[in-house]
Write a structure and sequence with these properties.
Length: 237
Amino acid sequence: MRDEIFSQRNDLVDFTFDAQVADVFDDMVRRSVPGYQSMIEMIGLCVKTYGQNNTNYYDLGASTGATSLALGINNPHANNQIIAVDNSPSMAEKCKHNLDEKLDNAKIICADIGAIELDNASIVVLNLTLQFIAPEERQSLINKIYQGLNKGGALIVSEKIHFNNKSKQQLMTDLHLDFKRANGYSELEIAAKRQSIENVLITDDKDTHFQRFSKAGFDISTCHFQCLNFASFLAVK
């Protein structure tokens, strides 16, 4: 379904992942996030390298299930369970609908990801999720993920990022706006969504991500993909 949520809205409130957003989310993210398909494809590659037999894969903030599906269809390992978690009932329902007939090893949970206990994990993914977590809670979440990962397991984090250099930030902002225009969003839609989401989506810079990984205990972390102001990070235990 095509995303037209902000085409005529005048009663703007903070962005929420409600039923209306769940219905158009796949179109919204494809048209709003440069490199989104490549992010998903890279998750598929990572599961081949870092997944382990007889372990769990966690998709935290699973939305409609694209990440879980990439984990499932690209997984060469044996006896794995994919645990998809989202705190939005509408998103969890959509995720279940999308995965039920495609994966036989997926478990969908509607819950706050902070309340989930990770166990025997070889892959954990936060795909455009951490940016919606309160900044003061992000380190403790990464710490918990590190503790739940097996040795050699991987955390994949994809996020919108910001740049501390003002000229570079403006360049990336302008290109991102052009990307949205090229994908059919009007000036009204762009401005309305930006106003709705600015208090909900709070970005970090790259260095903050790397410092967080290091503080949690990860020996290796890198930015393995970037397109404009969106980046994917890989941290290996």
